[in-house]
């Protein structure tokens, strides 16, 4: 009996020792740093994990106007104006960064003062918050959605969530750490416009193909005319290269068009009949 008790005491002592060591290890283990975004200016902040700055400076409106003006919230019927950087004035809103207007756009309420900004990280996105007024403040929170393809920012006013509390979302490449400077996107965009696949220097694929076609046609005509004139000693209309082809081309095009129309109208047609 005494031996069994000694064994049980040893087991309890060993278990208590393991629990104590585990607790001390958890208490002293280094915790991962809390991610945040330290404000640099009312338009920018720096990520605490070193991933880079989020800079909204380039998203300012022109000539004292909001970057996003009178964007409708269909559920409320109200219009929202917002400028991520720089102040604007609209109706009764002055020196504002966020403003809401009624259905007729003749009454407005300032819901964010320029320069009164704060940045935080909510676990998913960086959020910039603006306050307005004195005493009972109005609060507007804008979730910054990082999208490296959103060279043109997308602004969505989510409306009033509670008394004096408003929420918005802004999807932009400038919400991605290190992707924008004060002058705009640092990579992936051209002059703040969407970088679309199949384009070069702002020209679409269709435009490039048209340019290539006409340049090739011009070279063909110049080279052909020179060859027929100086090598073949041709004169008059005979100087046109491949003259026979160009003479019959219009009739072939016309016949092809008639054939297509006949097929659309479900008429019996063939190239021979046409």
UniProtKB/TrEMBL annotation:
It is found in: Cytoplasmic vesicle membrane; Golgi apparatus membrane; Mitochondrion membrane; Preautophagosomal structure membrane. Its main location: membrane. The keyword Mitochondrion applies. Residues 1-29 form the signal peptide. The keyword Protein transport applies. The chain crosses the membrane at residues 200-223. GO terms for cellular component: cytoplasmic vesicle membrane; Golgi membrane; mitochondrial membrane; phagophore assembly site membrane; trans-Golgi network. PROSITE patterns: MRH. This is Autophagy-related protein 27. It comes from Dreissena polymorpha.
